[in-house]
Structure formats: structure tokens, C-alpha cells
Design a protein that fits this description.
This protein is α/β, with parallel strands linked by helices. The protein has a single domain (about 25-315), classed as Phosphoenolpyruvate-binding domains (TIM Barrel, Alpha-Beta Barrel). The protein has 17 helices and 12 strands. It has helices at about 10-15, 30-35, 50-55, 75-95, 110-115, 140-150, 165-170, 170-185, 200-205, 220-230, 265-270, 270-280, 285-295, 310-315, 320-330, 355-365, 375-389, and strands spanning about 15-20, 40-45, 65, 100-105, 125-130, 155-160, 195, 245, 300-305, 340, 345-350, 370. The strands form 3 sheets. Strands 7-6-5-4-3-2-9-8 form an 8-stranded parallel beta sheet. Helix 4 crosses helix 5 and helix 15 (about 320-330) crosses helix 16. The protein starts with 8 loop residues before the first helix and ends with a helix. GO terms for molecular function: catalytic activity; magnesium ion binding. Keywords: Magnesium, Metal-binding. It holds the Pfam family C-C_Bond_Lyase. Its cofactor is Mg(2+).
């Protein structure tokens, strides 16, 4: 898989100081997890499921999830399972699907049905998303996938979704997260990334966040995200990549608060009209939340609409300034001290910033590095033009 491969070479030269590299889907898990980007969910009952997956894969989506859980009514579950098996086999026969494709299950039974039902489809199945992952059920799921992977001769990966009340409620949170960490650590080679189910967390308190707010304005959820990162997102070798929760809005609405996008970057790029389009589709809130995700230690994001993919990917590209700072820190060696940024606007502290620099260079290899003076606005405009073409 390779990001922005659907853009013309001339566009790459305009945007990138360093173009995205090809990511080996059978390679290093840490790099592959960063490469999830915007993970697009599609209901298993969607009409034209195969065409939908192929269309999105050819338009810049690099990871997708076929959803058997919340997106499927109970009465439709059996038919949805049959459709998933058939879709995976058909997608494999096309032979042109170069993305990470997962199935979100309800129970362990779904894993058996999919793995035992597919024939050619094993070639395109990356693994499973496991909702409501808890310490009392997670080990069984991971063991099942271990066994089926060995039987099928295919590395199948798991992305647990943390969204249960045991994690959300203060009196059980620490013990539950500690137990989950032990389970994930035992199956480290099977766990691609940890996902966060903020919608279910909000539901436990009867909350639905407004589109004028980010998930970080919902304190009970923001506190839980912080705890998840604290237990599972450490950079000492014990942690995992943790992805950002879903942004669920994609249509215009009457606003109570002013938009979250500053006008200046768009004015400087003669893109005022483009900014208005983003605001009209509530994408300013998504952009703000993606920035806050990264500030809080999360990478990538769950998305439920194709319009959400370009903003997430545009903000995933490493800026020329970030890249130069990261290189400077890494090339300085392992000693301490400080260096002035080549951009002459900050100090780079060599020891505290080293993990950040290492992660930034991984992101640079996956999403590329912008040319000096090129901004996320330029990247988003290029993606918007390609989508409209």
C-alpha cells in the first residue's frame, strides 16, 4: 500500500519534499499501524459492497472495515455474514485490492464463520476489529485468531476496540486497563493497533457530543482516553499504536459557535471558498479533533464517510519543519542537550524529543513530507481536486 498513489506525479512534485514510501502489509507492525490513516467503516449490508470497497480503495482509502456489529440489525446478521464471505472471495478474485481490509465482528463465532467460509478471500483479509474488548473476553478472541492464522497460513491481525464501562468508570478503570495490557502484551505480534469507541462511552452517560465540539470537550471520555494512552500508549517498548475515535458528522447545520478553522492559512493560499466548503460540511470540527488526537498521543482515525478521509490524511503528512526538526534530533546521537530548530522558532531538546522524532520519521515514511512552504491546505486541495475529477 502507498499513500496518495492516486495523485498524478506532477502533483507529487508540487506537494512533497519526500514522497510516501510503499508500506509492506506483511511487514513491521508499528509502521503498518501508522499506515492505517483514516480507517473507513462500511456496513456489511451495504448494497454493492464489493464495488464500494474497490471504489474507495482506488480513491485514496488505505484501510477499511466491513462492519458486522452496530451497522447490522439483529435480524439481518446471518445474511450479512454470508455477504461478507462472498464479498471477500470476490474481492480476492479481482486481484487489485492493495489496502488493509478488516471485518468487525460481534462474537468469536463471526471469526470462525468468516475464516471457515472464505476460499480466495483469505488473500485480502487483514484481520478483525473486536468491539467491546474486555479482560474477560479478549484473551479468547486473540487465541482464536492465533489458531486460525496458523491453520490458514496467513498473518491475521486484531484491532481491539476499548469502549466498555469497566474502562470508563473510575472505580474499575485501572484494574481493567492493567489486565487488558497483560493480554495484549501476550499476543503482541497479533495486535496491530488499539481503537477507541467514544460513541459507546458517551452512551453510558446519555451523552452525544455536538458537532461544534470535539471529543476532548466531553470530560468523562477525554479522561478515559488519557488513561488508555497512559497504560497502552507508552513509547518504552510496552505500548501500542492507539487510533483516534470516530467523527460522526458530515452535513451542514446551524451553528452556535464560530468555525474551528482559522481563516489565515486559507487566505494565504487563495482558498477562502475551499474553507467555506469545509466548514459547511462540519469538517472544521474533524480537523480540530485530528490535531487534538495527535497532541494526545493518538494516530489515525475511525471514519464513517468518504469525505472524512482527505482531512485525516492531509493532517497526517509531515511538514517540512517537523521533518527537519526530527532529523536534527536523531542525527545528534543519543546525548543530551538542546539545539535551535533550523526554522529558528523553537528549541529541540534532544532527550525528551527523541521518541517524538522517531515517530515523526515513521510517519514521514508512510505519508511523506511536504515541500517547504506547502501546508495541509495545499494537500487537501489537491485531494479535493482528484476526488472531483
Amino acid at each position: 500500500m502507498q499513500y496518495f498513489r492516486h495523485l498524478e506525479p506532477s502533483v507529487h512534485r508540487t506537494l512533497f519534499h519526500r514522497s510516501p514510501e510503499t508500506v509492506d502489509t506483511d511487514g513491521d507492525l508499528a509502521t503498518l499501524a501508522v499506515g492505517l490513516g483514516a480507517t473507513l467503516y462500511v456496513p456489511a449490508v451495504r448494497e454493492g459492497l464489493v464495488d464500494t470497497v474497490r471504489k474507495r480503495a482506488h480513491s485514496g482509502v488505505e484501510s477499511m472495515v466491513i462492519d458486522l456489529e452496530d451497522a447490522v440489525a439483529d435480524d439481518d446478521l446471518d445474511a450479512a455474514r454470508t455477504r461478507v464471505v462472498a464479498a471477500l472471495d470476490e474481492l480476492a478474485r479481482y486481484g487489485d485490492l492493495d489496502i488493509l481490509l478488516f471485518v468487525r465482528i460481534r462474537t468469536v463465532l463471526d471469526i470462525h464463520i468468516v475464516c471457515e467460509g472464505i476460499t480466495d478471500g483469505i488473500a485480502v483479509l487483514a484481520g478483525f476489529v473486536v468491539p467491546k474488548f474486555r479482560s474477560d473476553n479478549g484473551g479468547d478472541v486473540l487465541t482464536t485468531v492465533d489458531e486460525l492464522s496458523a491453520r490458514l497460513g496467513k498473518r491475521l491481525l486484531v484491532m481491539p476496540v476499548l469502549e466498555s464501562v469497566e474502562i470508563l468508570f473510575r472505580e474499575t478503570r485501572d484494574a481493567e486497563l492493567s489486565a487488558i495490557h497483560r493480554i495484549l502484551d501476550e499476543h503482541r505480534d497479533r495486535v496491530l493497533a488499539v481503537r477507541i469507541g467514544a460513541t459507546d462511552m458517551c452512551g453510558a452517560f446519555g451523552i452525544r457530543r455536538d458537532r461544534d465540539l470535539t471529543i476532548y470537550d466531553v470530560r468523562v471520555v477525554a479522561d478515559t482516553i488519557g488513561a488508555i494512552v497512559n497504560y497502552l500508549g507508552r513509547t518504552d517498548g510496552s505500548g501500542f499504536v492507539i487510533t483516534g475515535p470516530v467523527w460522526e458528522y458530515f452535513a451542514d447545520h446551524e451553528r452556535m459557535f464560530r468555525p474551528m478553522l482559522r481563516a489565515t492559512p486559507f487566505e494565504n493560499n487563495d482558498a477562502v471558498t475551499f474553507r467555506q466548503k469545509l466548514v459547511s460540511r462540519d469538517l472544521d470540527g474533524l480537523l480540530r479533533e485530528v490535531a487534538l488526537d495527535r497532541a494526545n498521543g493518538l494516530q489515525g482515525k475511525t471514519v464513517i464517510h468518504p469525505s472524512h478521509v482527505p482531512p485525516v490524511h492531509a493532517l497526517s503528512v509531515v511538514t517540512h519543519e517537523e521533518y527537519q526538526d526530527a532529523l536534527s534530533i536523531i542525527e545528534s546521537g543519543g546525548g543530551g542537550g538542546v539545539l535551535a530548530s533550523g526554522y529558528r522558532n523553537k528549541m529541540n531538546e534532544l532527550k525528551p524529543h527523541r521518541s517524538w522524532a522517531e515517530q515523526t520519521l515513521v510517519r514521514a515514511s508512510v505519508f511523506g513530507v511536504t515541500n517547504e512552504g506547502t501546508t495541509f491546505v495545499d494537500v487537501m486541495q489537491a485531494l479535493a481536486k482528484r476526488r472531483a475529477a
